[in-house]
Amino acid sequence: MKPALHSLLLLLLLTTCNTVENKPTASAASAKPYVRALPVNKGVKVVHVFVALCDNKYQGIVPVPAAIGNGQHPASNLYWGAAAGVKTFLKKQQHWQLLSSTTVNLAAGLLERCVFKHQQKAVYLVADAYDGKAIQQCTVEFLQSCSGQRKDSVIINNKTVYCGGSAQLLAYTGHDGLMDFQLPVQNMAQDTLQRAAIILACISKKYFAPHIKASGAKPLLWTTGLCSPEAYTLDAALQQWIVNRKDSEIQQAAAAAYHQYQHCGIKAAGRLMVTGW
Question: Which ranges of the chain does DSSP label H, i.e. alpha helix?
């Protein structure tokens, strides 16, 4: 066999192996992120929350009562419309104002979108309720936003608020789908923006760590064990983040809120809710 032909066949073989195994090459893993133009929110902070609705049928969870475990019905869902769900809980807090809620003209897999405005600070919160059977889509779009790959926006009172990769803080709430399915680690940082991530899902530090590291986002709050990812923990963390508290103070506030509602002990809550690597 001619040397040139032999080299070509060897190159094709190596390329095929890398594709099948879905592993990034050493050069890809060490590549510097390129600068990607994303719309900028001037003078405001934006939080984008991705909620995978609790779903007895389509998720690998311990079943909950049917009324709160229907992943196609946001209004009563454990993580959205129930008392400690994102929409219901935030609506009841005096520091948040619900500006809009819609179930129409949304992308596939998305059942409802709410937009909140903080009452004292220039902070918008966009919360998306994903169909429970679309949990993988929800996870992927959360990670794409953490890395700056995903653009999104909402219009509120004739003002465009950029979310997705333009948000300073991305949060995921719901079942840890990475316990049920695997995703290739490929969400390399698309720019030099410093985003923070909150992941309220069971054992999220273990399962999300390689993806968050690849995304370039900072792990502000995630978990080391089984948890109930309800909105009181998220809200407590956000209130500290909004006023620029230290990461350790944000973690302590989240742990205190979790203990308050779950009665698990403040030390146990502090070991469960952690910050950083």
Answer: 3-21, 26-30, 86-92, 135-147, 204-215, 231-242, 247-262, 266-272
Amino acid in position 206: K
User: d(Cα 250, Cα 270) in Å, to the nearest integer?
Assistant: 11
Burial level of 247, CB count in 10 A (0-12/13-18/19+)?
middle
Alpha carbons 22 and 91: distance in angstroms, whole number: 42
Place of tokens 């407590």: 236
Counting every residue, how long is the chain?
277
Instruction: Tell me if 270 sits within 8 A of 243, measured CB to CB.
Output: no
**The tokens of 100 are what?**
């809009």
pLDDT in the model for residue 22: 36
Question: DSSP for 205-228?
Answer: HHHHHHHHHHHT-EEEEEESS---
Question: pTM of the predicted model, to two decimals?
Answer: 0.86
Instruction: Say how many CA atoms lie within 13 Å of 197 toward its Cβ.
Output: 32
C-alpha span between 43 and 54 (Å, rounded):
35
Q: Which residue, 206, 208, 186, 187, is CA-closest to 197?
A: 208
Residue type, position 199, single letter: I
Chunked into runs of 10 residues, the chain (277 residues) has average pLDDT values of: 41 34 35 60 95 97 95 98 98 98 95 98 98 98 96 93 97 98 88 93 98 97 97 98 98 98 98 98
Helix H segments across 56-101? 86-92
Contact 167, 139 (CB under 8 A): no
- C-alpha distance from residue 276 to each of 71, 171, 209, 265 (Å): 31, 15, 10, 22
Q: How far apart are CA 99 and CA 187, in angstroms?
A: 32
User: For residues 276 and 189, what is the distance between their CA atoms, to the nearest angstrom?
Assistant: 18
